[in-house]
Design brief:
With 155 residues, the chain is mostly helical. 71% of the residues lie in helices and 0% in strands.
Length: 155
């Protein structure tokens, strides 16, 4: 079971989000749907409340999608559950501070996301490096194909 930090261990909304994360991690289709919904909601706050965490947050979205597609598995189960629970919590409008309370509703969401993203920073950095390596390999493969095509056309 995922160990919670003392300040979140008594938060019933986070406990409920964690329980949802436990079932979502087993269902790639629902997991992809969660990421899409959270990403859509987060886009609205990209330049305000979530501005400082956007790089890590968007990387966590890509990480969970890659996990759901079975493309990336180099993350501990505990940290994956933390990220997914954070997404569930962020998406849930009724939590410690309900989202409909203008100017305050996302404070608890952002605080929880900051805590989670700081806790899983190494995992996210490792994922970003994996993505960059994958992109570099794709560019290299494309260059080889282009070079081969050019050589064939010259003959």
């Amino acid at each position: 079971m995922v160990r919670l930090e003392p300040k979140y261990s008594n938060n019933r909304f986070y406990k409920k989000a964690l329980k949802s994360a436990l079932s979502l991690v087993k269902n790639p289709v629902k997991l992809m749907g969660l990421v899409d919904a959270v990403s859509k909601k987060a886009q609205k706050y990209k330049t305000t409340v979530l501005k400082e965490l956007w790089h890590s947050l968007s990387a966590s979205f890509r990480l969970v999608k890659a996990y759901a597609k079975n493309e990336y598995r180099k993350i501990s189960g505990q940290n994956l559950l933390l990220i997914i629970a954070g997404m569930v919590y962020f998406l849930t409008p009724i939590d410690a501070i309900p989202d409909f309370i203008i100017n305050f509703g996302l404070i608890d969401d952002a605080a929880l996301l900051v805590w989670i993203l700081n806790r899983v920073k190494l995992e996210i950095d490792t994922f970003i490096a994996w993505e960059e390596g994958k992109t570099a390999a794709a560019h290299k493969d494309a260059q080889v194909v282009t070079d081969d095509s050019t050589a064939e056309n010259m003959q």
